[in-house]
Structures are given as C-alpha cells and as structure tokens.
Write a structure and sequence with these properties.
Number of helices: 3
Radius of gyration: 16 Å
Mean pLDDT: 88
Low-confidence stretches: 7-19
Oligomer: single chain
Strand order of the largest sheet: 2-4-5-6-7-8
Number of strands: 9
Order of helices and strands: EHHHEEEEEEEE
Structural class: alpha+beta
C-alpha cells in the first residue's frame, strides 16, 4: 500500500489570492490544468499506467464563487497530535489545529482543521451530500489558508479527491464524522472518471 501524498503546492495555489482578486477564476483554471499535467506526466502520479495513457483530465463542478468563503478559526487550546483513521485500517499522525466557522445559505457550520507535520499546510477532510452521487464516496479534502485579521479562506472550488479515488493501492486519511456537512458542496473535483468537465 502507498501513503497518500497530496499535491499541496498545486492545490493551494489559488488560495493564496485574496477573495476579492478578479483573477482568481483564472488561477483556479490554471491550477487545475497544472494538476492534470502532473497526473498525466509526473513521476509521482498516482494514476495506474493504463489510466495515464487514456487520461483526458479531471472533471469538476463549474466554478462557483459563492463557495469561496472567508471564515473564522477557533484555535484549540492544545494543538496536539492525533491519530487520524485511514482507509488502510491504520492511522496517520496529524496536528489538530482548530475549528473553522463559516456561513453558507445564512446558516453557520464548522469543520475541524488539521495541520500537516510535513508541510505545515492546514486542511479539512470533509463529507457532504454529494458523496457517492457526483463526488468521491469517501469524501474530499480542501486547503485552508490564513488571511489577515485572524480570518481564513476556504475555497470549495479547490476541493479535491484523495489518491484512493484514482488508485486503490493508496492509503488515505478519512474525514472525521464531525466533518460531515448537511448539504451538497457542488464545487470542486468530481468522482474520478466522470465525463463532465468544467
């Protein structure tokens, strides 16, 4: 089995732009094209050899700027190491960082956020109402990036699938039960193999 190693630099490139930056739609598209190139040609691509030959690019929901959300982080008093269950029946050590509170459709929700020991990147592993219909059944991941004044950016347009969706040989962290959103996040990456593309 192979451990999941996300393309963090690729997937967080657009999150560096400010929420009001008019160029961020182009950045999202450029980031997606770059990820496709890495999956097709990269030495560390998780795609199976036969899949790489036929790979025509990942599919996404259309970019929807409503899903580019600024929230507030409630930091845990103790940002301790925890063991996050994975798809291999074992665990992956991460740092429990805080809860990101955000508003969607005039209601407040929160996601537990982890920090990677390897990269320092903040991420939320989540499930929502789209899983097993249009998105990967095991849930998706999304990067969280700090802005100014204690605010954080979560852009669900950049939600992506774990490598497990591309190749069953990979072991990937699973979203915690509390990170199940009670609505469909119709943004970001669709299930691998979906024909419709943005």
């Amino acid at each position: 089995m192979l451990r999941f190693l996300p393309l963090l630099l690729v997937l967080t490139a657009t999150a560096r732009a400010q929420p009001t930056d008019p160029a961020h739609v182009d950045l999202i598209r450029e980031t997606r094209a770059y990820k496709d190139s890495l999956l097709r040609h990269g030495d560390d691509s998780p795609l199976l050899p036969d899949d790489r030959l036929a790979f025509g690019g990942l599919a996404y929901y259309p970019i929807d700027l409503r899903y580019r959300i600024v929230g507030q982080m409630h930091l845990y008093a103790r940002q301790r190491q925890i063991e996050v269950p994975d798809t291999g029946g074992t665990t992956i050590t991460m740092e429990r960082f805080g809860r990101l509170y955000f508003t969607w459709a005039e209601k407040e929700y929160w996601l537990e956020v982890y920090r990677s020991f390897e990269s320092g990147q903040l991420e939320a592993f989540f499930r929502d109402g789209s899983n097993a219909s249009t998105t990967y059944s095991g849930g998706r991941y999304v990067a969280i990036d700090p802005l100014q004044d204690g605010l954080y950016l979560i852009d669900f347009n950049m939600a992506y699938n774990p490598y497990c969706d591309y190749n069953p040989a990979y072991i990937c962290p699973m979203p915690p039960a509390q990170n199940t959103l009670p609505f469909s996040v119709e943004a970001g990456e669709l299930t691998y193999g979906t024909d419709l593309a943005d």
